[in-house]
Amino acid sequence: MMKNTPLARKLGAFVALSEAELSVLEGLHKRRRTFVAGRDLVHQGQSDQAAYILISGWACSYKLLEDGQRQIVDFQIPGDFLGLRRVVLHLSDHSVEPVTDIEVTEVHVSDLMKTFSDTPRLATAVLWAASRDEAMVVEHLINIGRREADVRVAHFLLELGARLTLVGLGSKTGYACPLTQYLLADALGLSSVHVNRVLRTLREAGMVTFRDGFVTFDDYDRLAEYAKFERTYLDQVGPLLA
Amino acid sequence: MMKNTPLARKLGAFVALSEAELSVLEGLHKRRRTFVAGRDLVHQGQSDQAAYILISGWACSYKLLEDGQRQIVDFQIPGDFLGLRRVVLHLSDHSVEPVTDIEVTEVHVSDLMKTFSDTPRLATAVLWAASRDEAMVVEHLINIGRREADVRVAHFLLELGARLTLVGLGSKTGYACPLTQYLLADALGLSSVHVNRVLRTLREAGMVTFRDGFVTFDDYDRLAEYAKFERTYLDQVGPLLA
């Protein structure tokens, strides 16, 4: 039984899915594949007709610019789609690389479109989740543009926590996090030395500790206040559509 | 009859809407309101339970940061929702200000949720459109971070053209555009003097002219090539869901 996949948990936060809808979702989880850390699975501009649902592990989507710079746009965690925008929105804008070894389900675009057509409530949930993820990306990028480094890092760690909590992989206590300081730096527009210094400051202030692959919220409420973190979507109780 | 609203045209690009669905959409267009240029209609952090559908005129969404800086996140054109994320995604992140006098339809969140629940295909179309718009915002912000000013302006003018074409207000020839160089500057992270200089360069190169409230594509294909503009979603023929 696959009805407790991260994707089902995530979509359940937006739309109360029926047994029938959960079965359809399960039907999408047929073709399992694994990819090793560091090898691209979606290339910028690629016209492949498949997207992936992340089952376990972490990935990152990034954009390579003409001058060779790399901007990490977002990290993907279990329950997230990889390459969804490319196949359904006809936007081929990112490359996706596994941060850890990952397990995914491959979904062909024709199967996905048929599912959307047959079960529009499921489509609503998927697009709702995608839209929320995009909104968070906007936050990241404003983050990079305008916030101080300390607040930027704090906000980022809180947001990852909120997303992981939604799929049962985190809480207000903390979460397991495989990101290196190099990856954090590429996502936040900071040097890794700077990231390291900020993390020490936040730890010494008794707010959050990132060490040995774990983020521990030492004082969640104070950190949230410090980062002016918008907690509304964390506090959401029950799905938005019955 | 309202079946030819900009919103109906826009959603029709994603989902082939039935007569019944078009009628439901029409039902949302009941409470007309007008707002004058320059006066906020959605305040950052406001907990109002209404969103708006833009019927005519242009608006911009922006974020004020603690230090008083203003970042324009996106412009809204007819057919776009204003404040949708705030009411359905529980993200209260932007303020919205009319760029011109605008006409909108006010939609209460309870009506919107009922519509989504009763006609999930309509919800799919709305979220699909929202998701595509978000994806474009991501492009803007990468734009700001990494592209040269000339390419940045060119890309921005092409993208606005693509969005306006979708709702019947633009073509590969050009479009009416009420934006000042100050607004362009705030959206693109440039000074207005710099925007002015870039526009002159692009005009003298015979690619695009922005003058007296009109953007004229003097050589659309060359401009698109110059800006590495991803035209896939422009070339889309027919809705994605039958």
Automatic annotation (TrEMBL), chains A, B:
One of its GO terms (biological process) is regulation of DNA-templated transcription. CDD domains: CAP_ED. Keywords: DNA-binding, Kinase, Transcription, Transcription regulation, Transferase. It comes from the Bacteria. PROSITE patterns: CNMP_BINDING_3, HTH_CRP_2. Residues 147-221 form the HTH crp-type domain. Residues 13-83 form the Cyclic nucleotide-binding domain. Gene3D superfamilies: Jelly Rolls, Winged helix-like DNA-binding domain superfamily/Winged helix DNA-binding domain. One of its GO terms (molecular function) is kinase activity. SUPFAM superfamilies: cAMP-binding domain-like, Winged helix' DNA-binding domain. This is cAMP-binding domain of CRP or a regulatory subunit of cAMP-dependent protein kinases. It comes from Sulfitobacter brevis. The lineage of its organism: Bacteria, Pseudomonadati, Pseudomonadota, Alphaproteobacteria, Rhodobacterales.
